[in-house]
Amino acid sequence: MAVNASAHGICRDCLAPAAGTGKRCHSCGSPRVLRHPELEALPLAHIDCDAFYAAVEKRDNPDLRDKPVIIGGGKRGVVSTACYIARIHGVRSAMPMFKALEACPEAIVVKPDMEKYVRVGRQVRAMMEALTPMVEPISIDEAFLDLAGTQKLHGAPPAHVLAAFARRIEEEIGITVSVGLSYCKFLAKVASDLNKPRGFSVIGRAEALDFLAGQPVTTIWGVGKAFAATLERDGVRMIGQLQRMEKNDLMRRYGTIGSRLYHLSRGEDERTVKPRGEAKSVSSETTFNHDISAASDLVPVLRALSERVSARLKKADIAGRTVVLKLKTADFRIRTRNRQLADPTRLADRIFHTGLDMLMRELDGTRFRLLGVGVSDLTDAAKADPPDLVDTLSHKRALAEGAIDSLREKFGREAVETGYTFGRRRAGQPQREE
Questions:
Q1: Cβ partners under 8 Å of residue 156, min gap 6
Q2: Where would you tag: which of 22, 57, 109, 146 has the fewest CB atoms within 10 A of its CB?
Q3: Do 138 and 275 touch, CB atoms closer than 8 A?
Q4: Would you say 179 and 192 are in contact if contact means Cβ atoms under 8 Å apart?
């Protein structure tokens, strides 16, 4: 953003102070010099890993480094992540795979490895938490950080600490991040998107109004394509137009979102960084290679997904009270069904049978392209699966499941299968776990 001769600065490569207005670092000659009048006063950051899944795969397979890479499922799946080379060809996240391959036929498609991505994401998160306890995760690969009051701890202002952090991520983990620094969450997130990859952008208070005035309304959280079309019909395309409107008028036209438009268009965002130590849900889902409708095809997949969810719950020593079933029809309509249990569970057997009951109610000939199952309302595992006085066999099933878990831990997940999955060809493999 704005730069002047008195602006504070730092070289993002050698981390040396960068005074003046020169385009290169006086110490190492790097052009990656960051300067801004408010650089040493802004505490709130948004950090986003660049093309995270693809970056991890390129790190682990150097042969992919200079090639377009798409992380996703088969021809019926969607793009989870595309590297920046593939993005130049028009490939985008959530794009159907067949369209992505039409846009970039030379792309190399890699199936997602969520366990690996989660492992790397936790490494990045741990390094964030070493900077400040005020870390609010947004997803596996991005988070807000509030570094207010940490200058004495680190011996440097937040911007310098974040520049060193970004360099450490590259050196120690082998991926890159983009950093946005500002005085509020909204503008920190906007800043992190400005110069990807390996970006570090700053939006200060003095420039916020002028900067926002020149941005499209879609820059504001919650303004997607549909709402942007509504605003355009009213003649509003740019945030600067919103800045000239009264709050009451915006709320009269657009309801409660009108208040958000009014405040965010002026760079006003009072939300604080709220650390979240626990996940809200655990789930697994799969997109099928072909649309299917038969119970004989869907049930084995539901069982396999339930076992995956159960394994993650047990590993984290947590349980969930509500079982959630997710279905996506051939025409991309999503059906979500919930069932609250009397007690929390982490058993695959309970998750599966609860999901099965909900699934059977949906089997009316509709063809589905996706099936998922998960649990929410998470709690400590100590409260899970007490003996059932009505279902006297539940305890025996729990013991049997524990024995299966022990065998799988020793010999691998394929060592033991239930009758639901044994010898059954699965229609798809889980592409995303949340």
A1: 164
A2: 22
A3: no
A4: yes
Say how far apart CA 423 and CA 415 lie, in whole Å.
13
Is the pLDDT assigned to residue 395 strictly greater than 60? no
Adjacent-strand bridge partners of 146 = 44
Other C-beta atoms closer than 10 Å to the C-beta of 104 total: 20
Query: Is 428's pLDDT higher than 50?
Result: no
The predicted-structure confidence for 223-246, as pLDDT tens digits, reads as follows 888 889 999 999 999 999 999 999
How many CA atoms does the CB half-sphere of 301 hold within 13 Å? 30
Separation between Cα atoms, residue 43 and residue 272, nearest integer Å: 12
At the topology level of CATH, where does 282-433 sit?
Dna Ligase; domain 1 (3.30.1490)
Give catalytic residues, as residue numbers.
142
Contacts of 407 (CB under 8 A, 6+ apart): 415, 416
Of 347 and 386, more confident: 347
48 is in an annotated binding site: yes
Q: Does domain 38-204 have CATH number 3.30.70.270?
A: yes
Supply the pLDDT for residue 430.
Answer: 40
For residue 141, say whether it is annotated as part of any ligand binding site: yes
Contacts of residue 99, Cβ cutoff 8 Å, sequence gap at least 6: none
The answer to whether 122 touches 136, Cβ cutoff 8 Å, is: no
Indicate the pTM of the whole model. 0.68
CATH topology of domain 209-265: DNA polymerase; domain 1 (1.10.150)
CB 184 within 8 A of CB 238: no
Task: Tally Cβ neighbours within 10 Å of residue 323.
Answer: 26
